[in-house]
Amino acid sequence: MKFSCYKSDLTEALQFVIRAVAVKPMTPVLAGIYLKAEGSMLELQANNFSTGIITRIPVNTEIAGELVVSGKRFQEFVRNMPDDTITFSDEKDSNTLSIESGGASVELLTMTASDFPKVKTPETDHSFKIRTTVLRDLIKRTVFAVGKDDSRPIFMGCCFEIKGDTISVIATNTHRLALAKEKLADTYEDCSFVVPAEALRGIMLRIDPADVENYITINYSMRYLTFTFDNVFVNSRLVEGQFPPYEKVIPTSSTTRVKVATADFKRAVDFVSLMSKETEYNTVKFKFADGGVEISSNSPEVGDAGQNIEAEIDGEELEISFNGTYISDVLRVIDSKQLDIELNDKYSPAAFTEPDNDNYIYIATPVRA
């Protein structure tokens, strides 16, 4: 096998496909990436049996062939090659892959391609299409809210829910919840399923934000889901279990309503959070009163931090505390210049929304401080 390609193309593909390389492989080949060079294309595959990824990039192939190479090491060396063009070659029966670029070279041991479990297309019963950039936005605005406790896997994925021509994506860790929805071009059968967050992060990484005309096809069944677009195919096992009735935690009324400039609010929260990280629950206190918000945090071992910003307050004055990370996270995905916050009391969840946008809501549960 011998081929050459652009470093940028391969680096981007490896950053995506490495997500399906097994972290704790049952056999060494599962820690590898399968490469197949043929004609003008290089196919890369990774498969940990929960997620399988296939992606392709343009290359110049002199000698066709296939092999498996250690995923982590391969990615590291490719990323650090000095030139824009990289040449790859292996000698028959040598069990090594030579990589050369700008005077630098390395040889990596390879594994037999026939031992690699190729990514298969599972049988699926249903499908729908969605614009790639719409899917990317839905994932971006929700996936950060998933849980990290692997003993409760249902919270480590995003729930996809289709009702007619509307798709909703929901994520929660039981202390916060993010919900984003959009209209689809067609009407589909009602359904819901939970997709692992890691698979969604990989998809989001591979979608070009400027590619507004492209569509992605999603096929799904009771156990599996596939994404297909451009030169990308992802096969993911769905998360088993019943997603909680998330509608019950969304407040239907409020006694305090706040309008604040998103950029000002974000800067203040990020600043005060430098102190809150020194506390046990990353606690940031918010006092909504007198036409403004007083944001503060106190650490007995370090000190105090605070900042006041202007805001429109409608209703009762209120002091409430949140995990600072939970507020900072949502402020990174809010696109509007202004943020609306609706609250009831210091023990009840707060709702964060964008003006004139009914398609997004974020719920944060307060910290009892």
Count of all domains: 3
- The Rg value, from CA coordinates, equals 24 Å
CATH superfamily of the largest domain: DNA Polymerase III, subunit A, domain 2
Look at the helices and sheets and give the structural class. Answer: alpha+beta
- Provide the CATH topology of the largest domain: DNA Polymerase III, Chain A, domain 2
Tertiary shape: elongated
Characterise this structure.
This protein is α+β, with helices and mostly antiparallel strands and 369 residues long. The protein contains six helices and 24 strands. It has helices at 7-17, 71-79, 132-140, 197-206, 262-276, 324-331; strands spanning 2-6, 32-38, 41-47, 51-58, 60-63, 65-70, 85-89, 96-101, 104-111, 126-131, 157-172, 176-196, 215-220, 224-229, 232-237, 256-261, 283-289, 292-299, 303-310, 312-315, 318-323, 338-343, 350-354, 357-364. The protein has a 13-stranded antiparallel sheet with strand order 5-1-7-8-9-6-2-3-4-15-14-13-10. A seven-stranded antiparallel sheet has the order 11-12-24-23-22-16-20. The longest helix is centred in the last third of the chain and has 15 residues, at 262-276. The termini are far apart.
